[in-house]
Each structure stands twice: as structure tokens, then as C-alpha cells.
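To close the section, here is one more complete example, presented without commentary so you can practise reading it yourself. The ligand is aspartic acid.
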Amino acid sequence: MITVLKFGGTSVGSAEALKRAANIIVAEKNDKVAVVSAMSGITNFLVGALEDKNVDLEEVYTKFEERHMTVAGEIFDEERLESFRKDFDERFSQFKALLNDRDNWNDPFFKDNVSSQGERFSSLMLAHLISSMGYKSVALTSEMAGVYAIGNPLSGSCDLKKTSVSMAMNVRPMVESGVIPIITGFYGINEDGKPLTFGRGGSDYAASAIGNALDADMVEIWTDVNGFMSADPRLVPDAVSIEEMNYSEAAELAYFGAKVLHPRTIEPARMKHIPVKIKNSYQPEHPGTLIHNLRKKRDALLKSVAMKSDLSIVTLRSGEIAYRPKLMAKALDKFGEVDAIYGVSTSLSTMAFLIHNNDVPKALGNLRDMDLEDLEGIDVKSGVALICAVGDDLLDRSGFSGEVFGAVKDIGANVEMISEGASDVSLNFVVPTESAADVIKILHSRFVSGVEQ
Ligand code: ASP
Ligand code: MG
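Output:
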């Protein structure tokens, strides 16, 4: 039995946090592998340095070293500090060599390499800490463990097959002999051996991919909250944490507002039916949220409601566009470069796309070179928010959407766009941003907690 335990930035960001993480890891009864993020703030610091035209590299090195060595000084005795320092210096000189050579800066994967550096040091620190507690532990970079990635800079995906083969050789024997590997999250290496990151916040996904590759029995994501909540507690004070969800519900929710989990985390675990647990490293006794295949009968209609604001609806108008699928395909293609399409809705003569405000100029720029004869007009409606209501088998509950929209109407909000039927666990619709918080509150009180206020 193997458990993969992933610790986020705040769970390895200080001496206390590292000790908490180490205690959680050694208390795990199964064979185990840990996956870590960089210490909190470090990835932002590295990305910031690259974006600063007048960056003073010496200052970057000093700050980076200080942050890690200060914490190391707090958790290690003299002897351990010395052996940590040796390993630290080895990695640190590679880090400096990478940044000092200006030729590297033109490499398309340079940013991936630099931003992945934090993980290399947090993993080292945690492995030394666990060793100092009398257990066998080793820090493995993704290069050493054999985590492979494919795709474009800053948005890679794990090559699960290749990773599985290499981890069977590099990692499994270690785990089976009682060693605890601490592996860097956030990135894999591409076919040229270059670091390729999985996008910001991608260590959750890395842990799930590693769980998949190792055929793990459990993936635990240790973070700083008690799992998924039924709504944002800042909006809904009686929001509760959700004990159990299925994979689809968690994926839909992660994709929306809920920042608890990187949205791509679910898929690699789901493929192999590996349960994922979200746990709070500050409150390890709290059950958190268990995500798995099982369905449990519940009384409440909805499990959670979330929102995403700063969105815009871009509507294309053209007579009888519905009878011109080629034109529709062409229009869709123009949205190919936006970060995400949060919804699409069509009618006889319109096609509406829901995208982030920041992506509107890009989309309009691309639409400009569409044949004007084809399109009669383009409208943009900004200042809208997407509401995502998640629950089991919503499609099977007759009249449910009527009830939901009835609630929305009761607070006088206007529904601007609807996406229903695409997923059987979520009902998504768009309202003006100023109504979004009230919509969340009424849906939560009517359909989650069942106590209308
Ligand atoms: N350290 C990376 C980031 O800040 C990856 C992660 O934390 O998941 O984006
Ligand atoms: Mg995270």
C-alpha cells in the first residue's frame, strides 16, 4: 500500500510548518512518498525576478539563500546543518549557473527551469528534517525520480506512461525498502531533459500524476483549509466542509472559484480510481474532504455553490448561424488562444462565449479577421459572474433547475446565460457580478444547508 502525501507552500513555508509536515509523513502507516511545493512566496519571488528588467541577481541569491538557511538554522542541529548546507550548496551553484549564463535566458524553457527551483530546495529541507528524526529519507528532483512532461512552456502535462515506467525503477524499490522519497512537485522533464512546469499551483497535479504512476492507494493533498466547503465562508458564514464527493463534483468545483485544489488534480487519480483526500496540515485530526467513486445518499440537493467573477460574454450574431455549422466552427476557432472558455451557448442566430475579461481583447483581435459578410455583429457584456451549483445527478432531478432559477428570480437577479445538461453534476449559469454574492447565499440556504434565512 502506497500513500502519496502532497504539501503546499504554506505547509512547508516555515520551521513550524515543516515540522508539522514531517510529523504527518512519519505517522503515515502505509509506504509513502511525499511531494512538495516551494516554500510559500518563493515561486512568486523567482517569477518576479525574471520579470524585473533591472534585476540584481546577487540580491536574488542573497534573499533566496537567507529564506532557506534561516529556516534550516531553526530546525537542524549543527551536524545536520552542515550536511544540509553541503547539499544546498550543490543545488544552489547549479541555480546560480543557470541564471548567470545570459545565453540560457533565451531558451523557451528558461522560465520553467527558474520557477521550478523553489521545489528543489524545499524538498531537500524536508528530507533532511525527516532523516534527522531517525527515518530514512531522500530528496528527489523530478529529474531523479523520472517525472516526465509533455507540452508547451509553463503549461505541461505529465506523461503518465513514461513516468510510470521510470518510477517503477527509480522510486518504487526505494519506497519498498522503507525509504521516504521527498519529490519536487510542479514540474517534470520534457524529452530533451528540460524542466517543464505544470502551470502555477501545479504541485497538486504532480502529486496526483505521481500517485497514478506508482499505482498508489491514496493521494493526500495537505493544505491550509479543511477541504472543500459548501460555499465560500466569507460569503456564507454557515458554510460547512464537505466530507465526501465524487470525482466529477470535485473537478467541477476545483475548476471554478474554489482555490483548494488545482483543477487538473482529479484526472490522473480518477483514471486509476485512487481516492484523493484534502487535509489541513494545521488541523490534521479534521477529516477534510474525501474524493472517490462512491456516492452517498444525501438529503441536501446541492453539495456546493461557487462563483467565478471578472468574466465577459462575447456574443456573435449572424442570421441562421445554427444552420451554418462551418461558420460556427470558424468562430470557435477564433477563441482558440484564450486561457479558458467557461461556457458556450447558441441560438438560431447567436453564439455566445463566456471568457475572462482579460481575454476579451485577444478574442476580439482574432475575430476581426473573420469575414465581415459572415458576421452581423459582435456584442460584449462585461461584469458578469458564473455561478456553479454542484451536486449528485442533477439531471435526474426533475424540476430542479426550475427551483434554482426560481430562487435566483426571488432575489431579483437576471440570468444572462445558462449551461445545463453538459455535466450531470453541475448547473452553471451567468448573472451580473453585483448579484453573484446574493445568488450564492440564497442557493446555499435553500439547497445546501436547507435553512433559508
Ligand atoms: N510552487 C508552485 C507555484 O507556486 C507550484 C505549487 O505551489 O503548486 O505555483
Ligand atoms: Mg496550491
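Once you have examined the C-alpha cells, check your reading against these statements. The first strand starts at residue 2 and ends at 7. The radius of gyration is 24 Å.
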